[in-house]
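Section 3.1: Structural characterization of target chains.
Under the original work plan, the team committed to producing a structural model for every single-chain target entering the pipeline before any wet-lab resources were allocated. The record below documents one such target. The sequence was received from the expression subgroup and is listed exactly as submitted; it comprises 114 residues.
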Amino acid sequence: MECIYIEYQGETKTLYIKNKFEDYKISKLRMCVRLLTGVEDDKQHLLYESKVLENSHDRRVMSFQDYGIYSGAHVVLELRLNNGISPIPVKNTKMYLYMFVLFLIFFIYYFYSN
């Protein structure tokens, strides 16, 4: 599950995503906004469905129905694919690529040494 932190402006009820997700088309993602109220109990966390309003160059702008979210809230945005499969993190993809290259080098070295 990809989670990022976002800015919240209470007057406009608009969320500005700070991170860029250039690897995924934002229109194909189902967005859920979860408000963390500071209470440690998971039952106090609220979940909202939302939709994309605009795709700008440096920020993903979205809006959602406001259910009493205050401007100082700690808000986390979760991105999920429509079919329920989470996007692959870039760090793990690079690690698997490095492992594959090392295996390939080892295999070629072993093959030519015999």
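The radius of gyration is 20 Å.
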